[in-house]
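Human:
Class, as today's exercise, you are to examine the entry below, and be ready to discuss the fold:
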Amino acid sequence: MKFGTKAIHAGVKPDPSTGAIMTPIYQTSTYVQTAPGEHQGFEYARTQNPTRSALEENLAALENGKHGICFSSGLAAMDAILKTLNPGDEIVSTNDLYGGSYRLITKVYEKFGVKGKFVPMNDMAFLEKQLTKKTKLIWIETPTNPMLNIIDIEAVCAIAKKKGIKTCVDNTFASPYLQNPLDLGADIVLHSATKYIGGHSDVIHGAVITSDKNIADQLYFIQNAAGAVPGPQDCFLILRGIKTLHVRVERACKNAKKIAKYLKSHPKVNKVYYPGFKDHPNHLIAKKQMRDFGGMVSFDLVNNDTESANELLKNTHLFSLAESLGGVESLIGHPATMTHGSIPREQRLKVGLTDSLMRLSIGIEDVDDLIDDLEQALLNV
């Protein structure tokens, strides 16, 4: 079954009681039992919910995995994965990481003895030297947020397997339509389903997919024991969004190519970060492991200061100034003060995240209108 068909049909069956084509929202906290322990597969809604079960099956199919586990947010999903570690364990991750992920590791888990090490992941020999006996998890984010660096998933996973280390790929920026890390050797895939998977900026959600039963059993246990589960309405909205995932992402990719090319030629723009450019570091890796280059574009200005960035940010109309990404509408953000504000400035600057860097989430509007919007905003910088 090809991706577009899986997106619409995997895990989804007409409601047996009414024939409803859409999975119902099972808005219930508990389920009647005919006798103690005798039920229809559902006991308590924190533990199981039919709407959530349909979504979990669908997500597993999209990532070519066997098990899907849903959570109330992307960070709740990450939190569940980190809960499988023990004091003294170490996580090795990229030095260009989403601010919320960095904050969770450094501000929450380091207090409990789980340490984070943040290193470049473009040199496999260097990466291998960073791994120790304490390293239990390699956390890969590719494309990275917001610098859009590309990490070779297959190469990292090969090193990890040789050393008996688990790997998790945050696949949020690519979505399952563009990239399937389990097929490249990863043990776990994470999504902030708030973004491309939901696709309509109307729900917060997280998901983990794996084919490893031991990992899945741990995560299902944590899902139930810790209770950071999504409600059935949230699961319904994500299922609804998935049905158009392939169409939306395809259009966003097409728009992003044109916008990246436009920005690269603009005299007021300094650098444009977009994996589709042939001179982008690891462009060939992106071409190998992704089906297209994504709908995200980052750029900074020749006038590399916060004031210039603020002037541009105030003057876009179709690009709404907001956090998040992956919706049908285009968004513009300022990572230094928004998504990556929790990362120290000196550390941000080391990876190229300047004070004027802006991140675009390209929507599915008419691309000529989007370019016109950027053109008039850049006039004021």
DSSP finds 14 helices and twelve strands in the chain. Residues 3-242 form a domain with the Aspartate Aminotransferase; domain 2 fold (CATH 3.40.640.10). The longest strand covers residues 135-141.
